[in-house]
Amino acid sequence: MLFNVRQETLPREEIEALQLRRLRNVCERVYANVPFYRKQFEALGVRPADVKSLADVKLLPFSEKQDLRNHYPYGLFAVPKDNIVRLHASSGTTGKAVVLGYTARDLEIWSEIAARSLMAAGVTRSDIVHVAYGYGLFTGGLGAHGGAECIGATVVPASGGASRRQAHLMRDFGATVLCCTPTYALHLWEAGLEVGIDFHDLPLRVGVFGAEPWTEAMRRDMEEKMGIDAMNIYGLTEIMGPGVAMECAASKCGLHVWEDHFLPEIIDPVTGEQLPPGETGELVLTTLTKEGVPLIRFRTRDLTSLDYSPCICGRTHARIARLRGRTDDMLIIRGVNVFPQQIESLLMESEGLTPNYQIIVDRVDNLDTLEVRVEVSDTLFADEIRKLQMLETRLQKNIKEFLGVSTKVRLMEPHSIARSEGKALRIVDNRSKEL
Ligand code: ADP
Ligand code: ZN
Fold first, then answer.
1. Most buried residue, 33, 129, 275, 428, by most Cβ within 10 Å?
2. Could you tell me if the CB of 211 is within 6 A of ligand 1?
3. Position 136 in a domain
4. Has residue 27 been placed in a domain?
5. Pocket lining: 207 vs ligand 1, CB cutoff 6 Å
6. Is residue 236 lining ligand 1, measured as CB closer than 6 Å?
């Protein structure tokens, strides 16, 4: 089912005409109201009127998280403060927080796109939606909440924490949809089992998981463990919050970016040049309708590719591929580029390993070292030591073969790696401590 049939199925020419109109409009708004942008435009010698086609987006300046930090808290707001009805801040995974302001219309649009997203995952007004994303300055909780209410579903605003109690609530209230980070979903599932609640016995049928990178292998694992369809939702505070892009249940292949509100581009993160559809690079987003803090060519640091081919679900909006992680998450180990998700995929291919893992980077005698700690299942843990050692050796060999780096793999006892209620801490980089 589609939440907004007309907008979600607009023919490509109409999407592009709408985007161009809105792009010109947002350029005019920031040029007139945000001194930072006026300066950026002037430095490049470009004026809003120079945007005559969508391709002209290339003429516009980029913006990035650091610009928001430099103008903390309100410096990039484009409307008078009286028009702002809510503030959110990014969770600060990669440094000092940034603050974003929303007008009433921004919140309406956000709820609408979150509703589209949930419905693309298969949520309807008959569902009971358990929202275990954190509520607060983080956009996850209120974002999913607004979308579910907009559809007319029943929302349980559980937020993060008290996991065993949450498992009880899910059972007692008959949750059919769970919204949270993929790692917290696994934690809730474990907490449930500890108190005798198996997700397979609940009416739960859909998971709406996002806010951090995860892999196809992890999806398969979670779908099996929980008896659900595990769907991928993407968003970021700077642009709006969860619901900027979402997978559809029909294809489960790529996330539709709601193009009537966001203009996506993929660039080479080093040169800043636009890359053609299909090529992997950094996702850049321009907000087309946002009033509070519109952003022009915002560099997300997230790596993906764009696909404009038609989707079997009937939606015409372009799809981004499952996010490969952030450019900031890339580890350089003795000159080799490594993403945590590549290691995750390799781990998940082995029977008996859980998705609870951590990567410890250190520097010993001026040499980078990489250690992968991964928890094993209870059954595997009960097995012979020799078998576990063989598995360690095999994993080390696989990682060396596929990623080209030597690692030490340590199989850990079940439940020995700290659980997160929000985004998982995958990388512990001890090298930076030396500085
Ligand atoms: P922070 O940058 O402090 O983590 P946010 O809470 O706004 O701020 O998180 C947004 C970021 O979370 C995105 O830029 C992206 O890196 C990550 N993210 C969100 N959804 C997904 C997803 N489905 N897959 C991978 N990464 C995601
Ligand atoms: Zn689709």
1. 129
2. yes
3. yes
4. no
5. no
6. yes
Least Cα distance to 185 among 199, 165, 168 occurs for 199
Taking the whole predicted model, whether its pTM rises above 0.85 is answered as yes
CA distance readout (Å), 185 to 96, 133, 146, 179: 27, 10, 20, 8
Which residue range is the domain that position 202 belongs to? 70-328
**Domain tally, the chain:** 2
Nearest ligand, measured from the Cα of 138: 1
Residues 194-203: contacts with CB within 8 Å, 24+ apart? 194/164, 195/164, 195/167, 195/168, 197/167, 197/168, 197/170, 197/171, 199/170, 199/225, 199/226, 199/227, 199/228, 200/226, 200/227, 202/170, 202/171, 202/174, 202/175, 203/174, 203/175, 203/176
Specify the ligand 1 atom closest to the Cα of 300: 14
Distance CA 435, CA 413 (A): 33
361, 221: one domain: no
Tokens of 167: 């498992």
* Tens digit of each residue's pLDDT (9 = 90 or more) over 141-184: 999 999 999 999 999 999 999 999 999 999 999 999 999 999 99
